[in-house]
Amino acid sequence: MNDLTRESLSYFGLYAKMFRAKKRLVPEYLSFGQDKDQYILYYEPDEAAGAGTTINGKTVLWVHGGGWNAGSPKFFDFVGQRIAGAGYPFISLGYRLSPKNKYPVQIEDVCEGYKAALAFLRGKGIASPRIVVSGSSAGAHLSSILCYGQSVQAKYGVDLSNVIGYIGIGGPYCFLKNQGWALRTLLKQLFAEGYERTQGEPCTLMEKSGIPMLLIQSEHDGLIDYSCAVRMAEKADSLGNRCELYPVTGKRNTHSWYTAGMFLETREENTTLDKFFSWIEGL
Predict the structure, then answer these.
(1) Cα angle for residues 140, 181, 17 (degrees, 5° grid)
(2) What does the pLDDT look like over 224-261, one tens digit per residue?
């Protein structure tokens, strides 16, 4: 059975587990634009997770996946439940979706949402948060540009001095000539005809940065070729950016399971989730 078929067959089990996920924490909502998708959700750890005594003052800011054309912070509520449940204040960031909205609308929203998140944290008395930026799939693409695309940071006036680490999970960081049909279709929806796609390619946009990077990627993804992460890691190394590439080896190593489904499990059940948290702990 090839990896794309395994990916397709995994959806039933994944969605069944999603709809059974407990919603213990109620997030705060903040809009940062006119569109319904321009908002953030903030999850505060409760007493059981150590509310008020955040783990080393670290906050996780997450950009959701969904092929740029689907998904929302509300849909990925279970990610916030898991990460805030582990004791980290968690911000889930939404953005306008394709194909109605063409790139660079999405990265503009991520940058504006990041600035809104910082202002929101200051309003809660967190003047100097230590932020770990993360994202999965399409969200890994966008969040990596936020962290390492200095030309984009300058264009939208983004200050990343509060970011202490970046975790990308299953991201299309390089637009390969031999990429699969599914990704080709999604990129065609994302970019307008004639748009210079290197202007939205993380591998091209990356510059030297002091933000350490963890790339989590499966060799049996089914949608995103493993070489995307390899090339991103090689580019980081060539620039002197600290980067670790972590290969997913567990049974649930298809794209949707490790980019999202791992947050439906515990650290004891899922070694990739344990890596996610242990890496943050080590920052």
Answers:
(1) 55
(2) 999 999 999 999 999 999 999 999 988 789 999 999 99
